[in-house]
Amino acid sequence: MYIKSLQLKNFRNYASQRVEFGPGINVLTGENASGKTNMLEAIYLLGLGKSPRTSREKELISLGAERAYVKAEIAKKYRSHTIEILIENKGAKKIRIDGIPVKRLSELIGIVNVVYFSPDEMRFVKAGPDERRRFLDVSLSQQSKTYFKSLAKYNKILAQRNTLLKTENRNENLSSLLSIWDAGLAEVGANLILARKNYIKKLSSLAKISHWELSDGKENLSLSYECNTDGETYDEIYSSLLSSFSSSVEKDRALMFTTKGPHRDDINISLNDNDARKFASQGQQRSVSLSVKIAELTLFEHETGEAPVLLLDDVLSELDIRRKEKLLELSNRTQTMITCTEFDFKPSNLSKLYKIKNGNVLNR
Ligand SMILES: Nc1ncnc2c1ncn2[C@@H]1O[C@H](COP(=O)(O)OP(=O)(O)OP(=O)(O)O)[C@@H](O)[C@H]1O
Ligand SMILES: [Mg+2]
């Protein structure tokens, strides 16, 4: 898949702009604050219907404007699509696919798949569990609408259960009130855990290979899903989840939120059998993050039959020549958008080179 063109109107610091992209490497250079990340943000928005940077959508509208508009033409293996997203100061976001308005975000997900790599993602190893869960959710949601819907449902029930923990905190019957939500929460929760476990198994074996190469065969990387829910099958996970909800009622009541469940899980990262989250050096952290991203992209190809769009925001400057080459190898298989302040390398499959200046895109 690749993005043929992108049109932005009153999006962040872009007043009105249309850009054409090639299927290989597209480089966007420009000074700080020129609008490079904003452009990748617009592409991410097309893929996931949300920004990687903010949950406050109105921030995407240019200051002083009423609405932001993003339109893209997408070439896929078997057909092309047009996606339009309109974000208004008043009212909900509007999405159209091939000119037809769609009501649910789940209809958008999966048309443009993106793998986003920025200095934030480079902190994959040392970031908190919430960042690693976000990685899982973003990646899995794009690959499976079922996962995306289960996640939305889980979060909804979880929010209701947490509200109850606050509003009925002193109610003697709190446990039985909560148990009404627990079955539903365990049902969708078990689906999430099962999908995440399967995904990490595949991810781990692919990331292991990249990391082995990057470390000259010295380091064995292994990823596993970390949770306090036992079991491998859906039924086992469901019962384990249900009993952990009921056994932690007193703790939940004291802390006024749900303390167990997939919203608290993590990815265990081990390097030669040591916990990388605690012990990895900076170089090792970079290699792990890179290997995980490479594995993520490869898995996308395996699972969906098409390579996603690779968005590299300002990461090349943080990588040495060897890691840079390893990353750019991917662009032989996938459309790649690279942002940088200095463009000082010569990739073989360069499609387009643009200079961005104060929200204006110029040919270089
Ligand atoms: N809603 C908005 N309206 C107008 N301008 C905005 C809006 N949101 C952000 N900006 C501006 O967009 C500019 C460019 O931001 P962006 O993050 O894309 O820069 P960048 O080129 O990636 O810079 P860097 O190299 O520092 O990462 C910033 O100056 C910011 O103030
Ligand atoms: Mg930036």
Please tell me about this protein's structure.
42% of the residues lie in helices and 24% in strands. It has 364 residues and is α/β, with parallel strands linked by helices. It has two domains: 1-113 and 306-364, P-loop containing nucleotide triphosphate hydrolases (Rossmann fold); 125-302, Glutathione S-transferase Yfyf (Class Pi), Chain A, domain 2. The chain starts with a strand and ends with a strand. The model has no long low-confidence stretch (mean pLDDT 95). Bound molecules: adenosine-5'-triphosphate and magnesium ion. Magnesium ion (MG) is lined by residues 36-37, 313-314. Magnesium ion binds at residues 36-37, 313-314.
Instruction: Please write the string of helix (H) and strand (E) elements.
Output: EEEHEEEEHEHHHEHHEEHHEHEEE
Low-confidence stretches: none
State the helix count.
10
Which structural class do you get from the secondary structure elements?
Answer: alpha/beta
Proportion in helices: 40-55%
DSSP strand content = 15-25%
For the largest beta-sheet, the strand count, sense and barrel status come to:
6 strands, antiparallel
User: Looking at the structure, what is the overall shape?
Assistant: globular
The gist of it:
By secondary structure, this protein is of the alpha/beta class. It has helices spanning 36-48, 105-108, 129-143, 145-167, 174-214, 234-247, 249-255, 276-279, 282-304, 321-329; strands at residues 2-11, 14-20, 25-30, 67-75, 80-88, 94-97, 100-102, 114-117, 221-226, 266-271, 274-275, 309-313, 336-340, 350-357, 360-363. The protein starts with a strand and ends with a strand.
